[in-house]
Prior knowledge:
Layout: E1 5-10, H1 14-25, E2 30-36, H2 39-48, E3 53-56, H3 65-75, E4 80-85, H4 90-98, E5 103-106, H5 110-122, E6 127-128, H6 130-146, H7 157-167, H8 172-179, H9 183-197, H10 202-211
Helix pairs in contact: 2-3, 7-9, 7-10, 8-9
Domain HTH luxR-type: 148-213
GO biological process, one term: regulation of DNA-templated transcription
Protein name: Oxygen regulatory protein NreC
Amino acid sequence: MAEPTRVLLADDHTLVRRGVRLILEGEPDLTVVAEAGDGAEAVELARAREVDLAVLDIAMPRMTGLQAARELSRRLPDLRILILTMYDNEQYFFEALKAGASGYVLKSVADRDLVEACRAAVRDESFVYPGAERALVRSYLDRLHRGVDLPARAVTEREEEILKLVAEGHTTKEIGELLFISAKTVERHRANLLAKLGMKDRLELTRYAIRAGLIDP
């Protein structure tokens, strides 16, 4: 028999991780080998452990699931990635695909769809939860027909990382340590963010981060 697929789970809610683990470990071809409470920890564990598949929540502290997916796609191109989320959101879906995810699964139907999504990812196939397929394809084709591009990113990936950490209350020194950059570089990115978004302080950046789904309100 082939070795079971080694799965990394990342979600900041312990009970959610426990429930997902029960679903996956009820299958002989899937085994959970690591758990993370945020996106940054997920990246660290994926690099340190032998992992075949990462299942990432979107809304997590320090680094979101989408940010983690981008980082993992760059560092570990053979790793398969799934987004498991409560957000039935078209924009998040497209961002997940751009970040390198193989699939997008809603937590509300995880007991029905997650195992199938994991197996599809391992086969290098995409998975979209069935209820969203028609609407997503229709929306995408409609945009193409009208010549409308998908929404551009308002900020760069690095600026988004810093925006999230600023909104979470981390100091410049802490952000530099988390992202392995100098305090001066953090300050430069923060100044660019304020100028680009037309904002003047941390409070306004925090409100923007909440609207962008980078942190919970």
